[in-house]
Automatic annotation (TrEMBL):
One cellular-component annotation, GO: cytosol
Family matches, as Pfam families: Chorismate_synt
Record: residues binding FMN: R130, S131, S132, N250, A251, G295, K310, P311, I312, P313, T314, R336
List of residues binding NADP(+): R39, R45
Organism this protein belongs to: Salinibacillus xinjiangensis
UniProt gene name: aroC
Protein name, per record: Chorismate synthase
One MF term in the entry's GO annotations: chorismate synthase activity
GO biological process, one term: aromatic amino acid family biosynthetic process
Catalyses which reaction(s): 5-O-(1-carboxyvinyl)-3-phosphoshikimate = chorismate + phosphate
Length: 387
């Protein structure tokens, strides 16, 4: 399975084309739109999210509620396009007008300057339109299809906020379903109601100060059989695919599994997960400090992965930069931005992880028809239970 996204932030639409989804998977636009609307929510978002109402249209690959096996084409319209028609139209505009509108002042922390140098753009709108995290809507659409595959295979996934600006949520004992419900109800998408208000206050304070804040998101995947991924090929290790996917999300700077970087400060006896066996559960672990992975493959314990998001780079309190035309320094000024997008990003991360898990399963159990995939995985589960 693979996918490609196209579309600019203030352009007409975002398009996602997914190839390799087996036939006869039940799939409705509502399954995808539900994920998209979740991504839009969360305390700290700017005015743009009041303009957009992300609903997907399935343009191909699905008929009468089931996938056909052909590429799936998904479209999300940008409602904001109506305000940007002149700036984002595909036809050439008057040269003077073009120069007048050019963005020549790169924002620190954005792709503006490096992207302009790479593609030779003197107008950095040509960079920022595509580097914008608006694209994560198209990625969530792909992830929603992946989630549907996982759901039908009895694999469930949830993403939520662990930390915002140093305010940490406590670990809580909850079923995955409860985690979904609690994070959904929280304006900051955390599971810890004690710190919820503190997180919101920190976001409000950052906004008041013209600043921005980042945080940490966590994703848990339950129901994975052991042995998915690879110890044989570096590029088929599922943990590395997940880490790569997480760091590919705009503003994400790192990923860790289980106890993560804490492992560097502990002895081996405090890190590795002892192996147990009983009739009912088959092989399982006493602990899950390694977050569900050994040797690039799942252990059968829940996958636990965290991603760190830097503070949003566009600041109302401007940082210094240089105008690429005049080479003069300036203090960037902006019109609108999110002050914290960690809650929204937890939804993005959930879908990015779902994608990597589903595509790896399909690579390991290649089937053109979804019922055959399901059967193969059921048989494999039975095989490893009796191993
Ligand atoms: C859901 C989400 C929303 C974001 N919103 C903004 C925003 O409003 N303003 C901004 O400057 N950056 C925002 N970002 C981050 C930038 O897109 C990102 O920092 C930038 O593209 C540079 O990429 P890098 O940080 O990965 O290097 C957002 C990121 C995510 C995941
Ligand atoms: C549009 C989305 O996020 C945008 C991501 C973003 C950025 O620079 O990454 C900047 C902002 O865009 P705008 O300048 O239009 O307000 C966010 O609103 C979205 O998440 O759908």
């Amino acid at each position: 399975m693979r996918y490609l996204t196209a579309g600019e932030s203030h352009g007409k639409q975002l398009t996602t084309i997914i190839e390799g989804v087996p036939s006869n998977l039940p799939l409705l636009a509502e399954d995808i739109s539900e994920s998209l609307l979740r991504r839009q929510k969360g305390h700290g978002r700017g005015r743009r999210m009041q303009i957009e109402k992300d609903l997907v249209e399935i343009k191909g690959g699905v008929r009468h509620g089931y996938t056909l096996g052909s590429p799936i084409s998904l479209v999300i319209e940008n409602d904001d396009f109506k305000h940007w028609r002149n700036i984002m139209g595909e036809h050439p505009i008057d040269e003077d007008e073009e120069v007048k509108r050019q963005i020549t002042r790169p924002r620190p922390g954005h792709a503006d300057l490096n992207g302009a140098m790479k593609y030779g753009h003197r107008d950095m709108r040509n960079v920022l339109e595509r580097s914008s995290a608006r694209e994560t809507a198209a990625r969530v659409a792909a992830g929603a299809v992946a989630k549907k595959i996982l759901h039908e295979l009895g694999i469930h996934i949830v993403g939520y906020v662990k930390e915002i600006a140093g305010i940490r949520a406590q670990d809580v004992e909850m079923s995955l379903k409860e985690k979904q419900e609690v994070s959904e109800a929280s304006p900051v998408r955390t599971l810890d109601q004690q710190v919820e208000q503190e997180m919101m206050d920190a976001i409000d304070q950052a906004k008041k100060d013209g600043d921005s804040i980042g945080g940490v998101c966590e994703v848990v995947v339950e129901g994975m059989p052991a042995g998915v991924g690879s110890y044989v090929h570096y590029d088929r290790k599922l943990d590395s695919r997940i880490a790569g996917g997480v760091v590919s999300i705009n503003a994400f700077k790192g990923a860790e599994f289980g106890i993560g970087f804490e492992a560097a400060r502990k002895n081996g006896s405090e890190v590795h997960d002892e192996i147990l066996w009983n009739e009912e559960q088959g092989y399982h672990r006493r602990t899950n400090r390694l977050g569900g992975f050994e040797g690039g493959m799942t252990t059968g314990m829940p996958i636990i992965v965290r991603g760190v998001m830097k503070p949003i780079p566009t600041l109302y309190k401007p940082l210094q930069s240089v105008d690429i035309e005049t080479k003069e320094p300036f203090q960037a000024s902006i019109e609108r931005s999110d002050s914290c997008a960690v809650p929204a990003a937890s939804v993005v991360m959930e879908h990015v992880v779902a994608w990597e898990v589903a595509r790896t399963l399909l690579e390991q159990f290649p089937h053109d028809q979804f019922p055959k995939l399901k059967k193969a995985i059921e048989e494999y589960r039975e095989e490893i239970r009796c191993f």
